[in-house]
Design brief:
This protein is of the alpha+beta class. Helices cover about 35% and strands about 20% of the residues. Helix 1 (about 10-55) runs antiparallel to helix 3. The radius of gyration is 25 Å and the shape is rod-shaped. The N and C termini lie far apart (about 90 Å).
Amino acid sequence: MRSCRGRRGSSMVEFTFAGIASIFLLISTVEISRGMWNYHTVAYAVREGALYASVHGVGCTNPGNSCSITVGNIANQIAGAGIGLDATELNVTFTTNSGATTNCNPLTSCFSNSTVWPPATNNDNAEGGSVTISANYNFQSALAVFWPGASSNPSFGSISFPASSTQIIMY
């Protein structure tokens, strides 16, 4: 019978090689899944904000109607639909049919903005016109720590996820 004395440390070495790869694979899977979830959530939140704005056009500003909305209302709608997103990392731009823009960088800066949107100027709130909401979300990922050529002091990397939605004003 042969002795296993010469193979005593090989199990530990094999486990180390397999363990490092397995841990990296596990972290990568979690981070990629988290990134995909955040990207989808940003797109969903922006679409919900644009839909909300599209049903509050010129009909809401007519005398006797009180359904006009503000930039703050839409910002809160986006934040409410963006479950799990850090609103301080979400930069949003509201664009009217005529090209006028309102920026919320970050989204939290517009929560109390009382400017009516879409505005009545240039007939931007007219039925059949369009509203566009665009956003960029800064996603922080641990994968950048493992990226080849990363600096000697590891830090979380940032990836920008863009999303945009254009809707036609209904009334």
